[in-house]
Amino acid sequence: MAKQKKTPRPKAITPKGFRDYFGHEVTERAEMLATIAGVYHRYGFDALESSAVETVEALGKFLPDVDRPNEGVFAWQEEDEAWLALRYDLTAPLARVYAQHRERLPTPYRRYTMGPVWRNEKPGPGRFRQFYQCDADTVGAPSVAADAEICAMLSDTLEAVGIPRGDYVVRVNNRKVLNGVFTSVTRGAGKNDIDAMSPSELREYREHELRGLKNDEILDAILRQLDKFDKVGAEGVRHLLTGGRNDKSGAFIEGVNLSDHMADGFVQFLQARRSSNSETLARLREILKFSAIGREGVDELEQIADLLAAQGYGPDRIVIDPSVVRGLGYYTGPVFEAELTFEILDEKGRPRQFGSVAGGGRYDDLVKRFTGQAVPATGVSIGVDRLLAALREKGRVSSQVQGPVVVTVMDRERMAEYQTMVAELRGAGIRAEVYLGNPKNFGNQLKYADKRASPVAVIVGTDEFDNDVVQIKDLILGAKIAENATLEEWKERPSQFEVPRNELVTKVQDILKAQA
Amino acid sequence: MAKQKKTPRPKAITPKGFRDYFGHEVTERAEMLATIAGVYHRYGFDALESSAVETVEALGKFLPDVDRPNEGVFAWQEEDEAWLALRYDLTAPLARVYAQHRERLPTPYRRYTMGPVWRNEKPGPGRFRQFYQCDADTVGAPSVAADAEICAMLSDTLEAVGIPRGDYVVRVNNRKVLNGVFTSVTRGAGKNDIDAMSPSELREYREHELRGLKNDEILDAILRQLDKFDKVGAEGVRHLLTGGRNDKSGAFIEGVNLSDHMADGFVQFLQARRSSNSETLARLREILKFSAIGREGVDELEQIADLLAAQGYGPDRIVIDPSVVRGLGYYTGPVFEAELTFEILDEKGRPRQFGSVAGGGRYDDLVKRFTGQAVPATGVSIGVDRLLAALREKGRVSSQVQGPVVVTVMDRERMAEYQTMVAELRGAGIRAEVYLGNPKNFGNQLKYADKRASPVAVIVGTDEFDNDVVQIKDLILGAKIAENATLEEWKERPSQFEVPRNELVTKVQDILKAQA
User: Fold this and answer.
1) What integer pLDDT is reported at residue A64 of this predicted model?
2) Model ipTM?
3) Which of A36, A467, B360, B486 could cross-link B380 (Cys pair, CB 3.0–4.6 Å)?
4) Above pLDDT 90, what percent of chain A?
5) Higher-pLDDT residue of A128, A193
């Protein structure tokens, strides 16, 4: 016979940068998301699940940290020539959804959404190309009360999932303040003394100031450098804003080439946080005395702090912090970031703060892309995987998983009877399964129970069937005894029990209770 | 000034065949999936969430109903030339996951998974290119006990989500039986009288019979026609297997061009169901007396029925039905389908049975693609959206949604006090929000509450603040009264109440209780 040409076997691997999640990893995330959804729901936010696929046109180019356009997304061309792409965040789709359905949606529209997003970036350790986001946004509410609400809700959410008060802080800044610093610094103070302007001059100046910012590409570059304050400190940022700096590995990072005078202005601003919100606000007013937009931003920050304080969200939970920048260019007002303040050990065993797990802010222009009309919007995005990692650090989600009770099979002709046993256990709410592999080697069955982290094994052979009894093995106790018990303890605390068949469920319940 | 050239605004639309899901649509699905996950978990199945993106190579060409290869998926080429694609079901990824991680997974591996899948098909009414699946599979268990377990679990699942016993049936068939019919019919009976064969002849014959089937492309075409039995009936299938038929619209559907004799054999088989499982099994043995593989299939069906009956899953829930075909070519043993048996009205108001909401079967060759070793596997996939639609039909999920309590804003300077009210309501577990739009027009606030389906509005203006009271408006009662009350009733049953500020929460609770 002629030998057939074989096609080579496909490789069983996830694409580079993608991974699978197993068992407990899936359920603990699902539980956390359900808790978060509960808080959002109670705040009046409605669920939304938008299509994972969008037109490239609708997604736009709002991806952070991507210098080349059209980079960063997974995109493909359809037969009708349209380009489609996987969403890279949950904010761009919200803008599209609101623009598309605004006639029938309530205004303001509060919505939450959770799900995977995809980024076509170079994967690295712990950096995946598919990950979860969990967002809440309010569209159509211009008032800073909407921003304050998001901050309060974020605070409630962190506590609901298990981050105790004192272990987190929501830091709030305002992009208008930052823009004010930008104009003050780049134009030089004095020239723009708004207090000396007539109302019409003032209006024209403010329009000019705003327009200037939007068109100015350098702002994005500056934002990216300011955003590194937490990592590289004041001196580091100063170098990044001017001539550049060498990073830890010795590589040279190019700077933005601002003058020293300008860089000083920004660094002064980043360090404007004082020991109380009112002192920080006073310091900001001092820095921003020549910028109308900057003063507007400070006023908003004051309103947010007052609103939150009146509801009991004091500076132990929410603080004004000018060093919060948020890299994204689309923010137009308040920005905020939730930071976990407890220390963990990094890969090299050094203590460091856990850092940011959520962030967001006001973006008034995203919907305008579609409709031409500015629609105020503000929202927050929780980094689900980082928050889960934090909860694991704090022992708030159990890393230990209890597997099912395993009913072993001694006589494969009596499978229906084994199945009836697991059905009874399940009927009592106990997770249980019958061994479905080849039952010939009993050792394999116990190894299987071990791999499944089973708390209890049930063993019923011919003798047991004849005598209408079952053997129940406490696998947790058995393992403990095997590890460190004396012979006396071994005898006193048997880990295997013979009970009448009709006591199967109650005995298993007793053992599970004792293990808990 | 020179007019700047504008780029046209992007269109705010989902790509063709995609849609968004809002509010209740999202949460009712999430609740149903959580219920299903609960049943699967209790059966010992572990959660798995595999990557949504796979290599095209790993996905293979198992997509049903697609004639041209590489059709049916959304795929794109990476910079490194690799082709990636969105998963089109949850079974192909399971085969990849098991092959990739088999060293550390338990055997048998029971897993469940739920999430969207994507199909690059022509969209139609109610037919979307992204939809949810919810699968449970057991990999590595060759015994039909695994198939029986899946059928029992499917039955439990349907009842858990709210389909009462009697409103569904799980119909079971066996691909081996179908293959037996295929060889009997295509070769003609008599020649293959296996009872007259020696053991070695028998073995050779069975191998030949199996190999013949796998290589035979016509089987897939026949399967697709047999699968239409529910829709077009016996005569319809007979025409589709022979010369073709005209469908309702008058269009001619080409046939498979079998001989009449062959078509008769298949149609006879489709109609082999009798009034009890034992009679059906007897009828199948009669039809298949000349096929070893067919008899093996009948034996398996008998074992499954016996196992299930012994556990109390009688023919009121699970029946043997030879007309269950399942279009997919990859099934190798038992196949099953859950059908809802109650009638609904179709688009034209005609009563029809709701039909299939879940299906699955045994597929022993999917993992082999990767490893070269056959790994037995069996599983079920629930059509989440169809099942939800069924529950809506039965009134098992409420189509009525209760919105949040809306605290209206009369005095925007006192926002913090309004926020404190909603915080108190939330603290008592009540969904509540403050109106965040422009508060100037009070009518808009009540319209908003209406659009949000709010049960209660809270109204507090300067007078109320001064007197330390709040106005609470029962919007459900108010709407009822407005609709059909007499003046007397109107007076007797006020829908707006003034209560002391500190009774806000208890009064709202009372109203919500009265509405429930």
Assistant:
1) 46
2) 0.86
3) B360
4) 54
5) A128
Burial code of B34-43, b = ≥16 C-beta within 10 A, e = fewer? eebbebbbbb
The reply to whether residue B432 touches residue A369, judged by beta carbons under 8 angstroms, is no
Chain A residues in contact with B84 by the CB 8 A cut-off are: 15, 74
| pLDDT number for residue A206 | 52
Does A46 contact B22 at a Cβ distance shorter than 8 Å?
A: yes
CB-CB neighbors (< 8 A) of A306 in chain B: 416
Rg (CA), chain A: 30
Crossing angle of helices B415-427/A144-161, nearest 10°? 30
- Identity of the residue numbered A117: V
Over residues B71-83, the mean pLDDT reads 82
Q: Residue A205 has what pLDDT?
A: 52
- Cβ–Cβ contact B295 with A under 8 A: no
CA distance A100 to chain B (A): 5
pLDDT computed for residue A48 by the predictor: 98
Over 50: is that where the pLDDT of A448 sits? Answer: yes
Q: State yes or no: pLDDT of B217 exceeds 70.
A: no
pLDDT band of B103, cuts 50, 70, 90: very high
Task: Check CB contact of A453 with chain B, cutoff 8 Å.
Answer: no
Specify the pLDDT at position A115: 96
Helical axes B218-226 vs B229-241, angle rounded to 10°: 140
* Measured distance CA(B169)–CA(B165) in Å, rounded: 8
Q: Which positions in chain B touch A372 (Cβ < 8 Å)?
A: 9
- What percent of chain B has a predicted confidence (pLDDT) above 70? 87
CB B304 within 8 A of CB B150: no
Say which residue, A401 or B386, is predicted with more confidence. Answer: B386
Among candidates A474, A483, A479, A434, which has minimal Cα distance to A455?
A: A474
Q: Which residue has the higher pLDDT, B181 or B471?
A: B471
Task: Select from A16, A29, A53, A128 the residue whose CB has the most chain B CBs within 10 Å, as the one to mutate to test that interface.
Answer: A53
Q: What CATH architecture is B405-515?
A: 3-Layer(aba) Sandwich (3.40)
Average of per-residue pLDDT across A420-443: 93
pLDDT-derived band at A138, boundaries 50, 70, 90: very high
CB of B386 closer than 8 Å to CB of B17: no
| B82 interface with A at CB cutoff 8 Å | yes
Nearest to B311 among A12, A74, A419 (CB): A419
Compute the distance between CA of residue B136 and CA of residue A511 in angstroms, rounded to an integer.
29
Q: Report, at the CATH architecture level, how domain A15-142+364-401 is classified.
A: 2-Layer Sandwich (3.30)
What pLDDT does B202 receive? Answer: 54
Does A143 touch chain B if contact means CB atoms closer than 8 Å? yes
The whole-angstrom distance between A96's CA and the closest CA on chain B is: 5
- Are B13 and A58 a contacting pair at CB < 8 A? yes
Q: What pLDDT score was predicted for residue A380?
A: 97
Query: CB distance from A441 to chain B under 8 Å?
Result: no
Token output for A420: 């009836």
Predicted local distance difference test score (pLDDT) of residue A281: 94
CA dihedral (B446, B449, B454, B456) positive or negative: negative
Partner-chain residue, chosen from B140, B406, B416, that has the shortest CB–CB distance to A310: B416
- Domain-wise residue ranges, chain A: 15-142+364-401, 405-515
The confidence score (pLDDT) of residue B97 equals 97
Tell me the residues of chain A between 472 and 501 that have a Cβ less than 8 Å away from chain B: none
pTM for this prediction: 0.87
Interface mutation vs chain A, best among B113, B419, B426, most A CBs within 10 Å: B419
Dump the DSSP string for A188-255: -SSTT-GGGS-HHHHHHHHHHHHHHHHH-THHHHHHHHHTTHHHHHHHHHHHHHTTEEE-TTSPEEE-
The string over B337-348, giving b where at least 16 C-beta atoms fall within 10 Å of a residue's C-beta and e elsewhere, is bbbbeeeeeeee
